[in-house]
């Protein structure tokens, strides 16, 4: 059964994933996993409880007091947002879910598994009845990527529906050495620029590879990149491959990374390094960033760093399952207020006044409207931590957010065109049922943990280590996983 929701992209009101997302992530990266909770009033009967991931704004009570005036008028309940830090969210939500603790809305954790186990409410009919405005605006890829056995269990945040991998350059060194990076398209193209920085800038890391570095180009993984099975987006769209032995996307890149490592372009401790290399500092030359349509190219990084940062794409813009499930909000199957919860989610996703007040903060202090409709000007208060705001990427529909006056009309036009043109991964809509291979997946993950970082950062010679890695994967049961997944994928394609 296929769900047929009418979808349209909003062309008028435009969005800003904005500094709220990047600044928020930066604060979280500093290690703040402390649970935060707002204390807005309201009894359980008249309150919808939402669990949110991240760190609460310092003025959360103020933001919620303003928001709840509108929510109460429209829905008749108050919204209580309880933040749980990134470091604790997975563990705490697993406990909450397994114990059957009552809550209403939550940022989804392990969406597919929990939906299949019945932890999340079926929203198929609820969304059509109580959130038609929201469903009108969500890109089709979000619905396809979150539909499980013909049912929808989440309201996804309509934002960066596709992702594209970029090489991002520090302008300090581009300008200093008059570098022309306009023809950079591949990892190999970076070498002369990396060599220049290596030869002339002591203490600057040419390429910021660390333990989490992954350079896989145009690959969409079935279960995440620790289980090396997926689709080569430049290859057979119906064949699941192990990119360490098939396809032309990964193996040459591993050789290049090892060459760069031996030449000193990559930190010596790259396989274990957790160094962040802050974007506003001159400790780095090239880094890898992920961009989507609502990043407006390099606009976000430029605004956050105050530098004319420049990026070059090295992968396709692809709508994948990972992007479709990047930020899902679900309603607990145990919630006693499913209808009210859906109405709240709909209001967050369809009411510009409500959402902009949460994402940008208090109007008149953090921002103000300009003379041009749909545009705003950020004020000094926006930079004050005590006059906070919420992240856009994991809250609600970015397409109804106002846009910074500094974003150009050309960037907006490119956003809309790129969304239409982005390639859909063949895996979009395919939900792999792992019941028969759970043990093998665990074993493969354990093997990958021993080899992936070393291979990806170039710290080991792939010609020597890849054969050993493949043998260990075989012993762990990767072939069985691949056989089961291919069987299900064939059935999926036959019934598509």
Concise description?
It contains 18 helices and 19 strands. The protein has helices spanning 18-29, 60-75, 86-99, 111-116, 124-130, 132-137, 140-146, 171-176, 191-200, 251-262, 299-305, 321-324, 338-350, 352-359, 409-421, 438-456, 462-476, 478-494, and strands spanning 36-37, 47-53, 78-84, 105-107, 147-148, 151-152, 155-156, 164-169, 205-207, 219-221, 230-232, 284-291, 310-313, 318-319, 328-331, 367-369, 375-378, 403-404, 423-424. The radius of gyration is 23 Å and the shape is globular.
Walk me through what this model shows:
The chain has 496 residues and is of the alpha/beta class. It contains 18 helices and 19 strands. The strands form six sheets. A six-stranded mixed beta sheet has the order 1-3-2-4-15-7, with helices on both faces. A four-stranded mixed beta sheet has the order 9-12-8-13. Strand 16 and strand 17 (375-378) form a beta hairpin. The longest helix is centred in the last third of the chain and has 19 residues, at 438-456. It is globular. It starts with 17 loop residues before the first helix and ends with a helix. Residues 1-43 have low confidence and may be disordered.
